[in-house]
Design goal:
This is Glycosyltransferase family 4 protein. The protein is α/β, with parallel strands linked by helices. It has two domains: 191 residues, Rossmann fold, CATH 3.40.50.2000; 158 residues, Rossmann fold, CATH 3.40.50. Helices cover 37% and strands 19% of the residues. The protein contains 15 helices and 16 strands. The strands form three sheets. It has an eight-stranded mixed beta sheet with strand order 3-4-2-1-7-8-9-10, with helices on both faces.
């Protein structure tokens, strides 16, 4: 009697079943905690917000601060950090970053790559069959230098490669995206405009206030592209001895270097100008409460400006450069003024005007800003997008 061979369903039946994805989403970016920037804050808020909703979230970043561990769990988010071999301008060289990101991405239902990023194209390719969702914050921008054009070209090529592999692309607003060098690629993908998550902070005492005069302020990285030299020049044209200019933000760990020294020189002997340095998160509401007007004088493209929106939520009008992206919170709410980028005299006039806004206008501006920009709306949009993009991967697992 001849025994027939066992029936086989085909080659797939002999393969070992693929393990189910370990993470619902892997978020990949160059700088994560403890670094502070608008891009980092978006990634952190989305990661921790989704983790609080029960999603399994991983973050992959460079280990730009050797004092922090290569792997840890922070507020429900599993953080992986790749060692840094060298630093080049505002970026880092980390040979292990893309392979690490690829491994974590392949163990996830969807991978979210934050752009611009030198390794973006490699990460998207190494993600394998994991759907890619790219968040395009801005085009890479570098101060003038001999190697700057080459660096920009290399990063742009990598960003383009990631966008081509993306199932969807998130932008902060279409106004900014339309002026991107990558717009021809982005508009050909599934494009979603999701405003960055802006935290509604609790009212706090005005501990930074010194006088009864108008107080103007900026909060962010003390870097060249923020245009703070124009803000200092504008403030110095104001004669009021009771006026104060408060410039808050890190100037000790700024990628590409800080310009605080040049700003101090520019401020000269004007004792009304204050540099607070880095502010702990608990002190940020106190800073906003001390201001009559917020300034966002950036000279390079900035896709939104989270700090200005958070100040507006607390009733502080903003004066922003009339440039794609950063003008959106003011133009959509009417709570503040726009000025031609780099025009110090127009900046000074706008600051003086909005500092005189009456309480009822401030209250209405705060309500309008809170209604339009909030963390919950951002998290809802990202959560739905990640679930949709990762549905195919989840079904196949």
């Amino acid at each position: 009697m001849t025994r027939r061979p066992a029936h086989r369903e085909g080659p797939a039946a002999t393969r070992r079943a693929a393990p189910p994805p370990r993470f619902d989403v892997a978020i990949v970016l160059t700088y994560y905690l403890p670094y502070t920037s608008g891009l980092t804050e978006v990634a952190r808020t989305v990661a921790e917000g989704l983790a609080a909703r029960g999603r399994r979230v991983a973050v992959v970043a460079s280990r730009h601060d050797p004092a922090h561990p290569a792997r840890e769990t922070v507020n429900g988010v599993e953080v992986f950090r790749a060692p840094v071999a060298a630093r080049v301008g505002r970026g880092v060289l980390s040979p292990g970053f893309a392979p690490l990101a690829g491994r974590v991405a392949r163990a996830s239902r969807v991978v979210n790559i934050h752009l611009p990023m030198l390794e973006a194209g490699a990460v998207a390719r190494l993600a394998g069959n994991t759907p890619v969702v790219s968040t395009h914050h801005d085009d890479v921008w570098l101060p003038p230098g001999r190697l700057a054009p080459l660096q920009v070209k290399v990063v742009d090529a990598s960003v383009g490669a990631a966008l081509r592999r993306s199932a969807a692309v998130v932008v902060n607003n279409v106004d900014h995206a339309e002026h991107s060098r990558h717009w021809p690629l982005m508009r050909g993908r599934t494009l979603l405009a999701i405003a960055p998550p802006c935290r509604q902070r609790e009212p706090a005492p005005a501990t930074f206030r010194e006088t009864a005069g108008p107080h103007f302020g900026f909060l962010g990285r003390i870097a060249h592209e923020k245009g703070l030299h124009h803000l200092v020049d504008a403030f110095r044209t104001l004669p009021d001895p009771e006026a104060r200019l408060l410039i808050a933000g890190d100037y000790s760990k700024v990628a590409g270097g800080s310009v605080v020294g040049a700003l101090r020189t520019r401020a000269g002997d004007d004792t009304r100008i204050r540099f607070t340095g880095f502010l702990d998160d608990a002190r940020v509401p106190e800073f906003y409460a001390s201001l009559d007007a917020f300034a966002l004088p950036s000279v390079a493209e900035e896709s939104f400006g989270i700090s200005q929106a958070e100040a507006m939520m607390l009733g502080v009008p903003s004066v922003a450069s009339d440039a794609p992206g950063m003008r959106v919170p003011v133009s959509e709410t009417g709570f503040g003024r726009l000025f031609p980028p780099g025009d110090a005299h127009a900046l000074a006039a706008a600051l003086t005007e909005v500092a005189a806004f009456p309480p009822e206008r401030r209250a209405e501006g705060a309500r309008a800003t809170r209604a339009r920009y909030g963390t919950d709306a951002c998290l809802d949009a990202y959560d739905a997008l990640f679930q949709e993009a990762g549905a195919v991967r989840g079904a196949a697992a």
